[in-house]
């Protein structure tokens, strides 16, 4: 599944079913929102991503045939 990260059922606590993560459809969630939610007592964490998720995401970005080179560079830059 080039260009995406496949998470089978049961592989990631964050997702209840089979999930495909596309690198270009991520939504930023500002730290201030997390802090405010924590202070209000409304923050909920549904688990953590697998240890290899970052590497799999980087590989998916590199393998994508639909993401432009400039967008790939931007996405990879945000991942450090």
Structural summary, described in words:
With 80 residues, the chain is mostly helical. 39% of the residues lie in helices and 8% in strands. It has three helices and two strands. The protein has helices at residues 31-40, 53-63, 69-78; strands spanning 5-7, 19-21. It has a two-stranded antiparallel ribbon with strand order 1-2. The chain starts with a strand and ends with a helix.
Give the number of domains. Answer: 1
Supply the number of helical segments. 3
Strand line-up of the largest beta sheet? 1-2
| Rounded radius of gyration (Å) | 14 Å
Outline:
This protein is mainly α.
Key terms:
single chain, mainly alpha, two-stranded antiparallel sheet, 3 helices, 2 strands, 39% helix
Task: Please specify the SSE layout and strand pairing.
Layout lengths: L4 E3 L11 E3 L9 H10 L12 H11 L5 H10 L2
Antiparallel strand pairs: 1-2
